[in-house]
Write a structure and sequence with these properties.
heterodimer; A: about 650 residues; mainly beta; Immunoglobulin-like; Neuraminidase; 5-stranded antiparallel sheet; 42 strands; about 45% strand; B: about 100 residues; alpha/beta; 5-stranded mixed sheet
Chain lengths: ~650, ~100
């Protein structure tokens, strides 16, 4: 039986085609304000959005209002610039609802149309509760991006979902100064969560750019004052991960500058409880401080927030528990003494605690440093590690003095909530103003027996436990908002559904940058083709995209599987593991099939992607399973 | 030279010279692949002693050496553990490791 083949157009191409068809329809019909063309989810990825289009005889500004279930508190509205042809994004629709949308011309006519939406959650809206007031949240939404197999969603003051992505885009979603947002793509390069890059898009789902990176994207990005993007990446051909950052030209996607943390950190020291040789730093955040022209990186697996000079890459300081171990057995859990003396801070003040396995560091306008202190393990010395039931997480703010190298804790929130607010992974804080912060504890987990757990969300859910995410906002130490949802969510963000900048630009998006060369396995297995087709029980299929292809197949636990691209004597082998994934850091488990986590599962469904970069010509695709080389009957041209 | 050994044979052999041990399982895809990598290593370092230990068949030995999963590679020099790698390794990584401790 032939292996199924599908060519998948890039989402930017599909969006452009749909947009062109909509514009053609607009030109053909007599669409007016009273009778607009309505396209629900025109851009395919936000089912709680629509585009309406119509023409007016005079140039006029149009205000659209998605009428709330409670009015006017639940209304979401925006006024668009004067025009005669109006192509307007509608953002903030309710799920499973006959939405009333008011269209109002400036000092002119008005219409109310109905846009019906399906239940985008299939009856499983993750909301548990939203405690806030409409006066506090106003028309902002709280966005949460997933860390498990849930999808991104945003809630209003009542806890009604008003925004949703139906594709697994994740990691941080940040608003750019032009009104767009950036978020990780849904194109997985490599498990557990290394993505092809970032999408720059409008909240209605229109994607303007994909910034592809040879080393992929993970965790975080940051818009520089000139608009270029800092993006966390890695070298997928090296032996380590999550230890590089690049500066990317916003217009061309070109990599302008690269930082490799092995150049300024003592690799192997300062180990946290989740440390591994491969993921020795685990960079989960980047922040640029224009006041000092410096970058700050959060390294979960070294319990550190690391600051370097932007231009020289030289290490300035490190916020970390500065313990030094004389015991050779524990030496690498601490730091070299000279490193501590040169770069680390001395605590002052009576109420101080170091952060452990922190996330999402940021620099406040006055130079303080904030982060979400997961406090996972809660110590450097393994003998003093805290179990989840005795642990806590918190938002924390430190005041640092880089002249006398002292550090003072000036604020915290969450410690008093104990294990109920403990997240061993992911999470973030946001600074809005003095005393006004978001603290998002998105990785809370309980065992099936109801005990607080430090297992990461995807695993504990697989084992029958329960997982939660709590997003809070605090103003002058008063809790102003608390959102609780089922599932683990990587970060929370508060954004308005419409921006003062771009809300929808027509035209074709651009695919920038380049994919890297997929790492081959260095050892090939000399074996003649058997001539047999890959067994039917493997249920193999192949998806080709413009810049890569992905083999989907199910193998059995313990099988040795090698994907081969062969062209005459030329052979490119890629090893496909049929073992359980052993992931100590799982900031996004979106792509992990249950069997990936189950040691005892006999069937191993695998999706394995190979980039076309570095390959040239037409290749036969074959698969070695143990001692037989099978045909797929497919070729790929690169 | 690659040899599959039991616990007794392992203890006789690991204490002398440079020894690369591979704790493997016959029911593990990466272990099978590592077997091919080690054949390449054997060609490059014919003098190197490569001891393969079946994880399931030698539980006490695995416990004694703190081997919790497979594949696990431990490089010994005169009986002293010099380096431990877990999971499937590429040829380059093993060559680098052996070169580091060869002399």
């Amino acid at each position: 039986m032939a292996v199924k083949y599908e060519f998948k157009e890039h989402i930017i191409e599909r969006q452009y085609q749909a947009e062109q068809e909509m514009l053609a329809e607009l030109e053909q019909g007599g669409y007016t304000l009273q009778n607009p063309l309505v396209k629900l989810n025109l851009y395919f990825i936000n089912p709680l959005s629509a585009v309406i289009a119509f023409k007016t005889e005079e140039e006029v500004a149009i205000t659209v209002t998605v009428l709330g279930k409670i009015r006017p508190q639940g209304n979401i509205y925006h006024t668009f610039a004067p025009a005669k042809t109006h192509v307007l994004p509608i953002v903030g629709l309710y799920s499973n609802y006959a939405n009333q949308v008011e269209i109002q011309a400036y000092r002119g006519e008005k219409a109310v149309i109905t846009i019906e939406t399906p239940d985008v959650f299939d009856g499983k809206d993750p909301i548990i509760s939203m405690d806030t007031t409409p006066e506090y949240l106003q028309d902002n939404l709280i966005f949460v991006t997933p860390a498990t197999d849930d999808l991104a969603v945003a809630y209003d003051y009542r806890g009604d979902a008003r925004w949703h992505l139906n594709v697994p885009c994740s990691f941080d979603m940040k608003r750019l100064r032009n009104g767009n947002v950036v978020i990780g793509t849904d194109r997985l390069l490599k498990l557990p969560y290394y993505m092809s890059g970032l999408y720059e898009m409008s909240l209605c789902g229109k994607i303007y750019k994909e910034f592809r990176l040879p080393g992929g994207y993970h965790h975080d990005s940051f818009e520089m004052p000139d608009g270029n993007l800092l993006i966390l990446t890695e070298d997928l051909t090296s032996e380590t991960v999550e230890d590089m950052c690049v500066l990317v030209d916003r217009e061309t996607g070109e990599i302008l500058k690269t930082w490799d943390y092995k150049d300024f950190m003592p690799v192997g020291y300062g180990r946290s409880g989740s440390w591994s040789e491969e993921d020795w730093f685990h960079n989960n955040a980047v922040w640029y401080d224009p006041n000092t022209n410096s970058l700050t990186f959060s390294g979960r697996h070294v319990n550190s927030m690391v600051n370097i000079d932007f231009d020289t890459g030289k290490l300035n300081w490190v916020i970390t528990d500065p313990q030094v171990f004389d015991d050779p057995e524990k030496e690498h859990y601490g730091w070299p003494r000279e490193f501590v003396e040169k770069y680390c801070f001395k605590p002052i003040g009576s109420n101080f605690g170091w952060q452990y396995e922190q996330h999402a560091n940021l620099i406040t306008p006055d130079g303080d440093v904030m982060c979400f202190d997961n406090h996972h393990y809660g110590a450097r010395d393994p003998e003093q590690y805290l179990p989840a039931k005795d642990n806590y997480s918190r938002g924390v703010r430190y005041h640092i003095n880089t002249k006398d190298m002292t550090i003072e804790q000036v604020w915290e929130y969450g410690k008093d909530r104990g294990a109920a607010f403990f997240s061993p992974y992911i999470c973030n804080v946001e600074f809005y103003n003095e005393g006004h912060y978001m603290v998002h504890s998105g990785g809370i987990a309980y065992t099936a027996e109801g005990e607080p757990s430090e297992m990461l969300g995807p695993m504990i859910r697989h084992l029958g436990g329960s997982i939660y995410s709590i997003t809070t906002e605090i103003d002058n130490n008063k809790l102003m908002l608390e959102l609780k949802v089922h599932g683990n969510y990587y970060r929370g963000e508060k954004l308005k559904p419409y921006s003062d900048g771009i809300n929808l630009e027509l035209g074709k998006g651009r695919i920038l940058g380049e994919m890297g060369v997929t790492k081959e396995f260095e050892t090939n297995i000399p074996m003649d083709p058997s001539g047999e087709m890959i067994p039917e029980k493997c249920e193999a299929s192949l998806t080709e995209e413009m810049d890569r292809f992905t083999l989907h197949a199910t193998f059995m636990k313990g099988q040795m599987v090698l994907l081969l691209l062969e062209q005459g004597e030329e052979s490119h082998p890629y090893f496909m593991s049929t073992s359980k994934g052993d992931f100590k850091a799982m900031c996004m488990g979106t792509f992990l099939d249950a069997s990936t986590l189950d040691e005892n599962a006999l069937k191993r469904p695998i999706n394995y992607s190979v980039n076309k970069a570095g390959l040239s010509g037409t290749y036969d695709i074959r698969v070695i399973i143990d001692d037989t080389k099978y045909e797929t009957g497919l070729q790929i041209t690169c | 030279m690659i040899q599959e050994v039991n616990a007794t044979e392992f203890k006789e052999k690991y204490g002398s010279g440079l020894v690369l041990s591979d704790f493997f399982s016959a029911t593990c895809g990466p272990c099978k692949m590592l077997g091919f990598v080690l054949k390449d290593i054997e060609k490059l370092f014919p003098e190197l002693s490569i001891l393969k230990v079946n994880f399931e068949a030698n539980p006490d030995l695995c416990k004694e050496f703190g081997v919790a999963g497979y594949p696990t590679i431990i490089l010994f020099k005169d009986g002293e553990e010099k380096k431990r790698l877990t999971g499937l390794q590429q040829k380059t990584a093993l060559v680098k490791l052996i070169e580091e401790f060869k002399s």
